Fold these 2 entries.
Entry 1:
Amino acid sequence: MSTPTTPNQLAALNVLPDGPIAQKQPSEPFYAVWQLLESVTDPEIPVVNLREMGILRAVRQTASGLEVVITPTYSGCPAMSQMHDDVVNALAKAGMAARVLTQIAPAWSTDWMTAQGREKLRSYGIAPPHASRCGESNANVIQFASKNRASSAHLAVLCPQCGSQNTTETSHFGSTACKALYRCLDCLEPFDYFKPY
Ligand SMILES: [Zn+2]
């Protein structure tokens, strides 16, 4: 693992990315740490890891040692202390120590979820969120919605079981505050929709 130590390198690492974080390559800084953290999953959605969820934002070297930055999906998320402990424990098992910094600004956005994370949500039976912001991040919405649909204010939430657009919200709060409860009017299955933020 290469460890940047010059002031310039440290400053560059303090700029947090605004968007999804791709899986790290062996040539990138702190690769070993990122690899270990691939095994740390969202306590509420165990098929998706923290990087894919967009919760894991940075691994960096500070004057007091290694630091891992995580951003909760919403303020007061009850799973946050669990994620903190899971990160510390995953690193401790490999003989590494890191401070875990919980950063709430800029606020987490569903746009920070990776494409693979969204696909895993769908496979798990949770409809992934539509992009919450305008612009290029809408590309993954348009691919499964018609042009007319895409231009309308309300995009259909697709059923993760059968792909139908014929769905309806039955409760704005599902199993957690992050999700709304939907029901498919074609296959009649209820499902969670991860709401955009
Ligand atoms: Zn369905």
Entry 2:
Amino acid sequence: MLDAQTRLHDTPATGGAAPAAPAIPHPPLMTVADAKAMSVADMNSLFKDHINPGQLHFMKLLGFNKIKVERAEGMYYIDQNGRKILDFFGGFGSLAVGHNHPRLIAQRKAFQDEGRHEIAIAFMSQYAAALAKNLAAISPGDLDMVFLGSTGSEAMEAAVKVAERAAGPKRPKIVYAENSFHGKTKGVLSITDSPLYRGEFRLVDRTVRVPFADIDAIRNAFESDPEIGVIVLETIQGGGGIITAPPEFWQELRRLCDKHGVIWVADEVQCGVGRSGRFYAFEHAGVVPDVTALAKSLGGGKTAMAAMIARREIYMKAYGSPKTAMIHAQATFGGIGEACITAIEALNILYDEKLIENSAVQGAYLLERLQGLQAKYPKIIKEVRGQGLMIGLEFHDFSQTLPLVLRPVVSMLDDKLKGSLSGFIGALLLRDYATLVAFTEYNRNVIRLEPPLICGREHVDQFVEALDDLLNRGIIRIVKDFVGSQIG
Ligand SMILES: Cc1ncc(COP(=O)(O)O)c(C=O)c1O
């Protein structure tokens, strides 16, 4: 291999000898091969040293820190021991088409082999144009104008900004819901209802908080405060614990927004892309918001892709003239080539494989089977709820009723998990049944189930049978086994 100095001398001769630049030593960098071959112990120590030592604490509680994923395929992760882990976490809804869908791999390989371009900041991109066209074709009404980004937070920032500009300076206030989650970037943090995430950050103060799905509270707010110009709601609250609202709520919301000239932003970052059994969850109510946002599964589980989609009229009001066009034009990686073609293919797979319909069918079956478990274990399961393959499983709160002998041991391990069955159950599902579930930011008693939409009846059965077997141990043994998992 050539060293840095030799490479410099290899540059095309331009006549006289170029002055030698001082050599820059190659730092002790890890290679891709090193990363692939890393031991679990090294992963733990590098995560602690360079990523997030505090988070490692939670990973240890859940047993996540013992897993090194070697491969992923369809509904499964495959770990360092060849164990297939059933994925009912689904990257919080990022894996609609499952892990490593072969059609996505093929498109991405072809794109690379053909030497296609990625950065779309100078010339227009045929890939971004096609993706935007697809999103407009899927989206109802005149939700036609698309901004492409990389993350849900970025799409939601774009959504709030386009709405704020269209609402105009005389209507600067934004309504948002209790237990909302719209991202952690500085702008949307102001409408993300978490004291933990908000910390001591300075927030935008022109916000109005209402209970989720409370139409009277929204009506009162609109009627009493003419400065309100925008309302932002997740169509199904994810971080809040999988909370839905009935169709009548959304229909009345649309009516109220029209009456008061308020712009409705529907956050579909988690519940969109087919998860609820319709492409957008708001379609269940037969209404169309003014602005919406997608991310997560839009990237097919292979890439970071997000979109804000606005009604043409709203978009044109905000950025429609050459003078305003660049105010929120795409960022450096907005509409990057391979991410766009991955999203284009993912959307086609979604329809070709009828995954939206499958989400409705398997979601209903999962709900029904979980209701069966609730009837069997009424003292453990409080409620099951959701739509499509976005399901919440809420356990009774045991923080006050945990047997006295167990309390000190559990609280010694972690104060937050005290009496939270979801943590114990999630950890044991992984350890004893190779099954992965997700937790919920604001409600520690809720497990979130968001498997890939390729989920079959057999996967639902596998999941429910694992959970049944675990719950059959009873609370005391579950807690004891969890404590054991921390020692062993
Ligand atoms: C409803 C909702 N909005 C926005 C976001 C933010 O997305 P990201 O984590 O990609 O920034 C999330 C992420 O979980 C989400 O669930």
